[in-house]
């Protein structure tokens, strides 16, 4: 499913989107599909599935550990695409990974495989806009969205450039730092959301870990929230994983209504 | 501004770091020609670091190996390695930029030590990230950093060496980017770091030019330097790029370039790596077929890195610099050989360059006059060597 289609559906229902991140292959490649199913059943609107990279510089300890577990358990690029092809969920799927894994396959080849597997968008935290010309062209040809990140310290000039080149949605990083559960979300996010001059939906991520955060972000003007480490911590606990994932997903989704 | 060296280089970093890279580039271009900045830096280089360093004619070694061998004595720089040339330059730049805090990664601990020195001297809060494996094998340097008021953070993720220390320093930088300067220790990372570090290290090559002219009346036939990230190599090579001088970058061949799907038992990125993206730059990288970065290995912690500076990758591709490698065992032999012949104990890193000259002296490819960059002294390695030889 296209990302834009999902946002239109939600708009008609007057709901915001819950975007759920998990790392493919964590705790092992066999378990990931059931985790994705649980998240979707419980109300996640879009799934962001991490393709694990050995050196994830934009991620905090929680997702770093998930990445290690996944690689150790045998997750790799080939299995990733196979797994996605076999998923039976009717929501947009986004691939989150670092640029070397794409570069290594050849951008054209990688994006083609994404399209074949049913992936709708790409998030690459270490590929800033000015290094992405080639990839943007390739993604356009294959109908894959390029989701770029903006941060609290991004200049107005770059905000405009990023807004005009992004597709799918704009990933608004809530804080200076890396991914990970946070206590509080900065009150400055509203100002940042306001400054972004774009028709695309704006999704806030980094540090969003409970319903209160979700409600704050929705009130601040977010069209979507991205939650990752909260799910990954539940997966890491190995304690009643599926039912706890469902429970928190339902609660977070309530915050989007 | 072009951020590339051929196809290598660029800025592959999270968006959060873009303002910092732009600010750094602008500040560097502004201050590098500013008389106030350059006169302060020259003063520190002379009176704090102890420059210029001698170009020493190693007569005993020359007699034994049949070619004229000069050693550029960077081991005599304050702190025991060339690293201070760069940390002085960058810390002073950070001072002019109004930054309050320095962070750095370190492998052997030499760059961390050189950062601790300038942190103490110029009044920064300083934090150094070091892989836990390196902390164990370089304990004296860890203690030196602490003595100078630097906080040393042991990094326990991934391969627990410099690669992971850089990851952790980058994570710190995205979190504290406003008041913090990331004092990167080699010619690696996103632009403008490869350029800034090269420029600050080029003092080595500029001095060699003058010194060798004085004693030989000509440039050497060859210059030989070890290369991990490549800062001492770029520093001594750069001023000679347009001259008729052969340049050899000696990488850590470890256990003869063996590797598997997760680990490279060597660190020879120029010789065996393939194009990829690591730590903000497109360069030659040790990686598996999927693009996962391999753990690198070397007896010399300062060469133990899965990537290499993008400019060095470019120069190696065009053939201007010849990449080559030396195994752990050959480096160890050279360590002993120089100690016995000249009474100079070289760092295990620099021992790779010495070993290459010993090995190739007869072959003719080095010509008859060679300068080796003796980038550091070996005191820090004594424990490693004693343990190995037990």
CATH topology grouping of the largest domain in chain B: Rossmann fold
Number of domains of chain A: 1
**Strand segment tally of chain B:** 14
Measured distance between first and last alpha carbons of chain B: 53 Å
Q: Strand-residue fraction of chain B? A: 15-25%
Number of individual domains of chain B: 2
CATH class annotation of chain A:
Alpha Beta
The CATH homologous superfamily of chain A is termed: Aldolase class I
Helix share of residues of chain B?
Answer: 40-55%
CATH topology of chain A: TIM Barrel
Average residue pLDDT of chain B:
96
SSE class of chain A = alpha/beta
SSE string of chain A, helix = H, strand = E?
A: HEHEHHEHHEHEEHEHEHEHH
Order of strands, main sheet of chain B, comes to 3-4-14-9-10-13
- Shape label of chain A: globular
* Count of discrete alpha- or pi-helical segments spanning 4 or more residues of chain A: 12
SSE sequence of chain B, one letter per element: EEHHEHEHEHEHHEHEHHEHEHEEHEHHEH
- Taking the alpha carbons of the first and last residues of chain A, their distance comes to 21 Å
Q: Tell me the radius of gyration of chain B.
A: 19 Å
Number of helices of chain B: 16
CATH architecture tag of chain A: Alpha-Beta Barrel
Explain this structure.
The complex is a heterodimer of chains A (257) and B (390). By secondary structure, chain A is of the alpha/beta class. Helices cover 47% and strands 14% of the residues of chain A. The longest helix of chain A is centred in the C-terminal third of the chain and has 14 residues, at 241-254. Chain A is globular and about 40 Å long. Chain B is an alpha/beta fold and 390 residues long. Chain B folds into two domains: 20-46 and 83-197, Rossmann fold (3-Layer(aba) Sandwich); 52-80 and 202-389, 3-Layer(aba) Sandwich (Rossmann fold), CATH 3.40.50. Chain B has a six-stranded mixed β-sheet with strand order 3-4-14-9-10-13, sandwiched between helices. Chain B has a four-stranded parallel β-sheet with strand order 7-6-5-8, with helices on both faces. In chain B, a hairpin with a 2-residue loop joins strand 11 and strand 12. Chain B is globular and about 55 Å long. The A-B interface holds A 53-58, 60, 64, 68, 71, 76-78, 98-105, 125-131, 148-151, 153-155, 158, 162, 173, 176-178 and B 10-16, 18-19, 157-158, 163-164, 167, 170-171, 174-178, 275-280, 282, 285, 287, 289-293.
């Amino acid at each position: 499913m296209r990302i834009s289609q999902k946002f239109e559906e939600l708009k008609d229902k007057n709901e915001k989107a819950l975007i759920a991140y998990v790392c493919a292959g964590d705790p092992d490649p066999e378990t990931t599909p059931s985790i994705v199913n649980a998240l979707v059943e419980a109300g996640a609107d879009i799934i962001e599935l991490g393709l694990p990279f050995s050196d994830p510089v934009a991620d905090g300890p929680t997702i770093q550990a998930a990445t290690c577990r996944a690689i150790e358990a045998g997750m790799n690029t080939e299995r990733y695409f196979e797994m996605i092809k076999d998923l039976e969920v009717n929501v947009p799927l986004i691939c989150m990974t670092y640029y070397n894994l794409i570069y290594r396959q050849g951008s054209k080849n990688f994006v083609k495989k994404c399209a074949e597997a049913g992936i709708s968008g790409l998030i690459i935290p270490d590929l800033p806009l000015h290094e992405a010309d080639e990839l943007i062209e390739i993604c356009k040809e294959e109908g894959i969205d390029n989701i770029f990140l903006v941060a609290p310290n991004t200049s107005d000039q770059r905000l405009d450039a990023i807004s005009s080149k992004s597709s799918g949605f704009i990933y608004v990083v809530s804080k200076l730092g890396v991914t990970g559960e946070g206590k509080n979300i900065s009150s400055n996010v509203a100002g940042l959301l306001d400054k972004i001059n774009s028709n695309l939906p704006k999704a806030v991520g980094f540090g969003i870990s409970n319903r209160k955060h979700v409600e704050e972000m929705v009130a601040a003007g977010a069209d979507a929230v991205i939650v990752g480490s909260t799910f990954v911590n539940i997966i890491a606990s190995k304690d009643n994983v599926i039912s706890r994932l469902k429970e928190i997903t339902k609660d977070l989704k309530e915050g989007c209504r | 501004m072009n951020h590339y060296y051929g196809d290598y280089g660029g800025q592959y970093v999270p968006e959060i770091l873009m303002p910092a890279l732009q600010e750094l580039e602008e500040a560097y271009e502004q201050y590098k020609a500013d008389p106030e900045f350059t006169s302060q830096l020259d003063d520190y280089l002379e009176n704090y670091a102890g420059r210029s360093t001698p170009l020493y004619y190693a007569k005993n070694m020359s007699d034994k190996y049949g070619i004229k061998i000069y050693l550029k004595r960077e081991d005599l720089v304050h702190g025991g390695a060339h690293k201070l040339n760069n940390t002085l330059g960058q810390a002073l730049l950070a001072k002019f930029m109004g930054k309050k805090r320095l962070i750095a990664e370190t492998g052997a601990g030499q760059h961390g030590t050189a950062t601790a020195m300038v942190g103490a001297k110029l009044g920064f809060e300083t934090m150094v990230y070091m892989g836990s494996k390196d902390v164990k094998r370089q304990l004296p340097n860890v203690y030196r950093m602490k003595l100078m008021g630097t906080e040393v953070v042991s990094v326990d993720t991934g391969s627990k060496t410099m690669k992971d220390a850089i990851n952790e320093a980058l994570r710190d930088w995205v979190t504290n980017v406003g008041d913090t300067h990331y004092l990167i220790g080699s010619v690696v990372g996103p632009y403008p770091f490869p350029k800034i570090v090269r420029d600050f290290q080029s003092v080595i090559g500029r001095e060699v030019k003058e010194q060798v002219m004085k004693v030989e009346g000509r440039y050497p036939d060859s210059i030989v330097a070890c290369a991990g990230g490549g800062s001492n190599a770029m520093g001594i090579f750069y001023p000679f790029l347009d001259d008729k001088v052969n340049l050899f970058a000696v990488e850590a061949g470890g256990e003869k370039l063996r590797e598997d799907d997760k680990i490279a038992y060597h660190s020879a990125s120029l010789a065996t790596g393939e194009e990829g993206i690591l730590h903000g730059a497109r360069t030659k990288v040790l990686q598996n077929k999927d693009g996962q970065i391999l753990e690198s290995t070397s007896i010399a912690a300062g060469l133990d890195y899965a990537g290499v500076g993008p400019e060095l990758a470019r120069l190696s591709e065009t053939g201007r610099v010849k990449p080559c490698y030396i195994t752990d065992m050959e480096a160890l032999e050279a360590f002993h050989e120089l100690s016995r012949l000249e009474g100079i104990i070289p760092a295990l890193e620099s021992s790779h360059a010495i070993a290459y000259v010993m090995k190739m002296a007869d072959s003719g490819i080095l010509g008859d006059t060679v300068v080796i960059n003796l980038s550091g002294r070996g005191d820090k390695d004594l424990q490693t060597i004693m343990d190995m030889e037990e």
